[in-house]
Amino acid sequence: MLLQKLLWPRVGICTEDRLYYRMKAPSFRDEGDILRIEQGERVAIIGQNGAGKTTAVKMMNGLHKPTQGDVIVNGVNTKERTTAQISHMVGYVFQNPDDQIFNTTVRAELEFWPKYQKLPQEDMDARVARAVEMTGIRQYMDLNPYEIPYSTKKFVSIAAILAVQTPYLVLDEPTAGQDIHGVNCLVHIMDTLRSEGKSVIVITHDMEFVARNFERVIVMAHRHIIADGPVHEVFQNDEVLRAAAIQKPQIGQLAASLGHPDILFSEDLVKVLH
User: Fold this and answer.
1) pTM, full prediction
2) Taking the CB of residue 253, how many other CB atoms lie within 10 A of it?
């Protein structure tokens, strides 16, 4: 996918089995203007509200069209395809499941896209069964989505996109409203997708989730990418954190105050303090 000349100078996503951005702002990776997301990689995009995160990812799957330049997804210009067609390649899970779910049963919600794709019944059943297993929502299949808890409803919206089996999956604030069980389920889903060579891009304000589950972080501020690098490098760069108005995880803040700025996790802090 390739995005060019959108809200900020030359931003982009993916060709064939990789995703890349072309950008003007400086980054940790000195590769000219190219920002690549390889097949099977998972990337967290962080920054304050209004930084441009959601706009960028909505252009990835055609929900927004660029007013300048082009968005190319696996060789296809999104201007020449409908959002539904692009959504077969880039799945997008909304932050609020109420903005995504519209069927009267969970089962119907999960079957909607496979039916739209006109898959054989056997293939549709297999896709739905796999999505149900990955998200743990089997007991809710015959219920109205609006009768189940919000945290579970978010997994219904994830399962609906998993049933499409896109090579790229975008999750917008997936940990919001989730307990530790829900977060662990999210991690399992991401691990499974990576083992299948699929890419996961997450927008989140949950710095603990980012630190523990992503090797790579993209930081956005004022509709620019201002940093791209390994999670420890990003969270140790005070200039970037200030520019994006974000903070490292709480344990990382505590560790830094104790003279250990490279530590992000409680277990590592315990080791150095003993």
Assistant:
1) 0.84
2) 15
